[in-house]
Design brief:
alpha+beta, Peptidoglycan synthesis regulatory factor (PBP3), Domain 2, Beta-lactamase, 2 domains, seven-stranded mixed sheet, five-stranded antiparallel sheet, elongated
């Protein structure tokens, strides 16, 4: 018999009573990989949390309305609109909360665009994979070819024929955005940059970057090379999640190589609290772009923008959008990992009921100041026959938000339930067949 048990969590007080504050590590809810496959559906269903407009205050006698505030509001309202979220000067924009897979900002985020130096994140991902697999070491060395030395644009200033450690090349790519360093890595790992670019595209597809094609290791302009803002957000998240031991390189603010000191072009590392990566980029075709990630109070946001007109505009707009994301939305823990959602009846068990628990924490992103009111429905086939092993998947919890969006999470047995003894089982079965199920 299919059983449905409904619960509603409809107040801040109820949430506080049910759940103590916790720190949630890792991804909960649908992953960004799943998001990559479900984007069309989510884009239709999701709406950006917006803080309700403040009620106008009557000006005090003898005062005037703050003109600068009105001017700022007018500028924000006049920005080119986004499909989801606030307007932005960026031609392409995508912001996601990876803990809940909630899209906060979406502006032409699946339209092909030039990746510029943000393509270097794919090169770095492959380096990190090689290190994690033990096929590379930080002190491994690669030789600088004529092709690498001759690269233009941003450079690490490598000397022809020199041998450079992998760790120095990583810093040269991330901090200095060195095109020459990218060629050294590509040739060292795959023989030629062309072969390495094919590897980049293949691995990108496997990671869920469904609309990206790489033609070189650095993002240097090349016909047929493109990506999307969404794809770069997926890559950002996978880098952070898959390689926490190496991700720290993205937070380095400057570095000196060959007696030349250069600053990281990611200005948000200094100007926006919590920023710990990732990569800037610029080409004449694509404009100025940046993939950014920041963490505040345990909550991470990932933002990708492209198509801005200058370095200053890129820094200002990226910082503004990141501040907006943290200010205007928040995460609420609906269930902690291991919380009991419902107790299910047991058939022929030593206990009459078994707790059904949710194995991973469930968070919901909502407008700041507006706690969510989710409806929770537990679905399972019951009564559940004993014996039951703890951790056995029993059913699902369906959590429906106020906007109608529904998310499913597995439910597991929260305890072992052995079978009754023979005498008790016989007695229970006799009662059942004579009088029906007694709950």
């Amino acid at each position: 018999m299919v059983m449905h048990v409904s619960l509603r969590i409809d107040s801040r007080r109820a949430l506080r009573a049910l759940l103590a504050p916790v720190l949630v590590a890792g991804l909960v809810g649908p992953s960004l990989d799943a998001f990559a496959q479900q984007q069309d559906q989510q884009r239709r269903q999701q709406t950006q949390p917006q803080k309700p407009a403040a009620k106008p205050r009557a000006p005090q006698q003898g005062t005037t309305t703050n003109r600068s505030e009105k001017s700022t509001a007018a500028k924000v309202e006049a920005l080119p609109p986004s499909q989801i979220g606030v307007g932005t000067l960026a031609r392409f924009a995508f912001m996601v909360d990876p803990q809940t897979s909630t899209v906060l900002l979406y502006k032409d985020a699946e339209t092909p665009m030039a990746p510029s130096s943000m393509a270097k994140m794919m090169t770095i991902y492959i380096i990190f994979e090689e290190l994690a697999a033990g096929r590379l070491k930080l002190d491994s060395r690669f030789r600088v070819s004529e092709r690498a030395r001759a690269m233009g644009g941003s450079r690490m200033f490598l000397e022809l024929g020199s041998e450079v450690t992998v760790e120095d090349l990583i810093k040269g790519i991330i901090v200095l955005s060195g095109n020459d360093a990218c060629v050294v890595i590509a040739e060292g790992l795959s023989g030629t940059e062309e072969a390495f670019a094919e590897r980049m595209t293949k691995r990108a597809r496997e990671l869920g970057l469904t609309k990206s094609v790489f033609k070189d290791a650095s993002g240097w302009p090349y016909e047929g090379q493109y990506t999307t803002a969404r794809d770069l957000a997926v890559l950002s998240h996978r880098t952070i999640e898959d390689f926490p031991q190496y991700y720290r390189y993205y937070a380095e603010q400057n570095w000196t190589y060959n007696n030349i000191r250069q600053d990281n072009r990611n200005r948000l590392l200094k100007m926006t609290p919590g920023t710990d990566g990732l990569k800037t980029g610029h080409t004449e075709e694509g404009g100025y772009g940046q993939a950014t990630s920041a963490v505040r109070d345990g909550r991470r946001l990932i933002l990708v923008v492209n198509g801005l007109t200058s370095m200053a505009e890129r820094a200002q707009e990226t910082s503004r959008l990141m501040e907006w994301g943290f200010r205007e939305s928040t995460n609420t823990t609906v269930f902690r990992a291991g919380d009991t959602v419902v107790e299910a009846p047991v058939w022929l068990g030593a206990q009459e009921k078994v707790p059904l628990v949710i194995p991973k924490a469930v968070l919901i992103t909502s407008p700041a100041g507006q706690p969510p009111s989710p409806r929770v429905v537990a679905r399972f086939e019951g009564p559940i026959p004993a014996p039951i092993a703890k951790g056995t998947k029993i059913g699902t919890a369906v959590i429906t938000l106020a906007d109608g969006k529904a998310m499913e999470y597995p439910l597991e047995a929260g305890a072992d339930v052995p079978r009754m003894g023979v005498v008790s089982r016989v007695g229970t079965m006799i009662k059942h067949y004579l009088f029906g199920w007694l709950s």
